């Protein structure tokens, strides 16, 4: 059951930020990162999304460790889940024009909470492709090894694109980030499902 909870949490996380971001005034999904949804009067929705889904994914990852023999994969997925929780506990600063009244660009000075959020984000976006790379070498099914390897490469490349977009203050920051999150979290949901069914 815990593995199923991890799968459901990965899907739920994406659904929540897509629906919330698509229905929130002044929020532009193509421009603003997912973390910006934790700001403003409706910020509690994304904060809860981070904490609840991150906790469920962590629990699923612990189940991977306990069940074995993929202990390293479970450890990395646990780090990923805890990174999501920390991303919810520590919010990013207002910027990129959101919420209304926030600086139009990215300020040079950041709060302590924002700096911790950045570290947590780095942990999240590095640990997931690492988990996919580990899966490419440790899963039993050839199809899963090949798929996981392709996902790892795609996520690492996407992370690089997101980093460059952030440095350039691109108007497509949110779009590029979503191009990493949606397939990455989708792979994670499929992985938990396959592990629960014994198909990997």
UniProtKB/TrEMBL annotation:
InterPro entries: DUF998
Keywords: Membrane, Transmembrane, Transmembrane helix
Listed transmembrane segments: 46-66, 71-90, 119-139, 146-163, 175-199
Organism: Micromonospora maris
Keyword Zinc appears in the UniProt entry: no
Protein known as: DUF998 domain-containing protein
């Amino acid at each position: 059951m815990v593995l199923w909870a991890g799968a459901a949490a990965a899907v739920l996380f994406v659904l929540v930020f897509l629906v919330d971001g698509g229905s929130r005034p002044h929020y532009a999904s193509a421009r603003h990162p997912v973390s910006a949804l934790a700001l403003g009067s409706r910020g509690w929705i994304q904060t809860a999304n981070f904490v609840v889904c991150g906790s469920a994914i962590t629990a699923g990852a612990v189940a991977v460790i306990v069940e074995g023999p993929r202990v390293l994969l479970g450890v990395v997925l646990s780090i990923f889940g805890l990174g999501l929780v920390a991303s919810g506990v520590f919010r990013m600063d207002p910027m990129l024009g959101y919420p209304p009244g926030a600086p139009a660009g990215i300020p040079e000075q950041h709060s302590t909470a924002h700096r911790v959020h950045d570290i947590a984000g780095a942990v999240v976006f590095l640990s997931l492709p690492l988990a996919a790379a580990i899966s490419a070498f440790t899963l039993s099914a050839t199809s899963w090894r090949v798929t996981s390897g392709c996902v790892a490469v795609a996520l690492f490349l996407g992370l690089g694109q997101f980093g460059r977009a952030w440095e350039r203050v691109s108007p497509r920051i949110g779009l590029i980030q979503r191009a990493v999150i949606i397939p990455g979290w989708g792979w994670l949901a499929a992985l938990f499902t396959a592990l629960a069914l014994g198909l990997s």
